[in-house]
Amino acid sequence: MSFMTELAALLDPAGILTGAQIDGYLLDNRRRYHGAAQAVVRPRSTAEVAAVMKLAHAHGVPVVPQGGNTGNCGAATPDGSGTAIVLSLERMNRVLAVDADNNTITVDAGTVVADVQAAARAAGRLFAADWGAVGSARIGGALGTNAGGVNVLHYGNMRELTLGLEVVLADGTVWDGLRGLRKDNTGYDLKQLFIGSEGTLGVITAAVLKLSPQLSAQATALVAVDSAEASVRLLRGLQDQVGERVTSFELVSRRCWELLAEHCPELPQPFDAPPAWSVLVELSDGGSSLALTERLAEALFALGFDDALLAQSVTEAQDFWRLREHIPESQRRRGTSIKHDIAVPVSHIPAFMVEAETALKAAFPDLDLVAFGHVGDGNLHYNVFLGDLGKGVYDHEPAVNAIVYEVVARHQGTISAEHGVGQLKRDQLPLYRSEIELNLMRTIKAALDPQGIMNPGKVL
What we know:
Layout: H1 3-8, E1 16-17, E2 39-41, H2 46-59, E3 63-66, E4 85-88, E5 95-99, E6 104-108, H3 113-122, E7 125-126, H4 139-144, H5 152-155, E8 162-169, E9 174-177, H6 191-194, E10 202-210, E11 212-213, E12 217-225, H7 228-242, E13 246-253, H8 254-263, E14 277-285, H9 289-302, E15 308-310, H10 314-325, H11 327-334, E16 341-343, H12 349-363, E17 367-374, E18 379-386, H13 397-410, H14 429-432, H15 435-448
Helix pairs in contact: 7-9, 8-11, 12-13
């Protein structure tokens, strides 16, 4: 009996898509990779995922797990051979339990991140993971890439926000690690193998996630600074003044504001003349937002950063954040760029900025550089336009990457801070990870997926 015939017996009719129905599942978020597949499989339960994996294992069929398909490195897109199936978790989208006393929420891996946030909020709690795509990204994909976002500075990325997992392995075996424990020293912390593995070791089907108190007060400001060095000085000063109340700290270059004004004119511009650099900072605490805003204003004045726009209402704060979240969209409307999701130690950010720009301009004098990101945790989105080449810019990508990544390596950084490796950076990984690290990863991969059917061609 053929694989597809046996597969059809495992799922309801809506559980298998073929033909033109699957086109949207085969194209990555940035429209850079387009693959092929036998079918898109949409199970409704862990038992169905296990049955599908057992069958795929028996037939040697590659499996590409997919959440909301919002990734930026092509990790959820199959290759062009058409031999794989895409395993979409979109129908496994339930909030299974909220334990407010334990500050945990248990969810299916196909649950949209924004729905997890809403369920936590309804229980008077906060699920802190937050980035532009939370309305479409799903928990499984967020875990698979160890997603970050704007709150990592205070709350950590998905690795720090996860207590337990349920995973279906390559042979269909189910590991139930759905434990809401903060202390558990009974051997290896197996969940960490799967977080950030981009679907290459197994299929995450459910998770126990950490919640936090829903703080009543926020203070938000856009602060003009004259350099990246000044932004680091501001971060250190604010943390000295108000401690861990600093929950977000985003750096925005002048070029970002110019692109927003040109390509997103529907959004109100906060500055008459945008500064060279600016920081979007948010504090969170108990008490009143008015009192916290006054404290932020006092701290900024004491630190000598009095050129600031302080949000006077929730709406105004939301407007500031809407601008920040539209920076990627303004770049998309500008054209095709060579994108970098890098991180260096926070203290190295000023030197990285100077060195990378100097080296790039020596090789590409007419480049258009757009830099912004989560400077509070050292993660920068560092993007290069070369005129109006469109997708022809990719012809220069190896040379641009070599320049940027050389500076990153010199500052003990990483070529992927929160977007993962996928197929975009797979060939770069051996240049920036040691042979010992790569061999350990290959050993783990071979132990958990000896046939190599889990998301082949990604990461390794």
